[in-house]
């Protein structure tokens, strides 16, 4: 069985629970994932439980860490030019530590255990945010940023009020290039 530090490309099942994302893992796994666009690191389903301190990775613009065991958003400043971050399907409870990502435009935090949003977060470039379970954690929420929350108004709970197809088409026209799914299976 391969050790975490081995230079061989092992299957995710070979890693023991509680793996920390570190420079060695990034180096080993990024060589093993096959042809990916330059600037992309894909470490989904690797049983990663924490993000350790990494050397600055200036060239990385896309980071896939979905379906791991990550509990805390930390040490992300190692990716100062990150534009896309997928942390879907982890154990994150608090949205925090995003100040060091000024270029982040897409963030997927869906299917986590989010209970707290850091109100001091300012991400000027953010255009897409996936946080489906935040609304599930706040069932009493009727409005978010002065907009009605779908599924939480009296009309929608009575069975009506779903988004019309013309509204969906209008939304697609505004962001046509952003229809790519956040999570992609290996």
From TrEMBL:
SUPFAM superfamilies with a match to the protein in the record: L domain-like
Is the keyword Protease assigned to this protein?
A: no
Source organism (scientific name): Chloebia gouldiae
The UniProt keywords, alphabetically, are: Cell projection, Cilium, Leucine-rich repeat, Repeat
Q: Compositional bias (Acidic residues) spans?
A: 166-175
User: Could you tell me where this protein is found in the cell?
Assistant: Cell projection, Cilium
Q: Which domain of life is it from?
A: Eukaryota
Primary localization class, coarse = other
Q: What is this protein called?
A: U2A'/phosphoprotein 32 family A C-terminal domain-containing protein
Stretch list, region Disordered? 149-186
């Amino acid at each position: 069985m391969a050790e975490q530090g081995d230079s061989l490309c092992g299957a995710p099942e070979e890693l023991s629970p509680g793996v920390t994302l570190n420079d060695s893992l990034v180096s080993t796994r990024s060589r093993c994932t096959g042809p990916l666009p330059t600037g992309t690191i894909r470490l989904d389903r690797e049983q990663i439980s924490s993000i350790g301190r990494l050397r600055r990775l200036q060239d990385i613009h896309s980071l896939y860490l979905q379906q791991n065991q990550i509990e805390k958003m930390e040490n992300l400043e190692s990716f100062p030019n990150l534009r896309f971050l997928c942390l879907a399907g982890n154990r994150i409870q608090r949205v925090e530590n995003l100040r060091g990502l000024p270029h982040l435009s897409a963030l997927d935090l869906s299917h986590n255990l989010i209970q707290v949003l850091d109100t001091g977060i300012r991400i000027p470039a953010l255009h897409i945010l996936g946080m489906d379970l935040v609304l599930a954690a706040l069932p009493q929420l009727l409005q978010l940023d002065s907009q009605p929350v779908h599924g939480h108004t009296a009309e929608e709970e009575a069975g009506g009020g779903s988004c019309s197809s013309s509204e969906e088409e209008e939304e697609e026209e505004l962001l046509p290039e952003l229809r790519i799914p956040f999570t992609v299976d290996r």
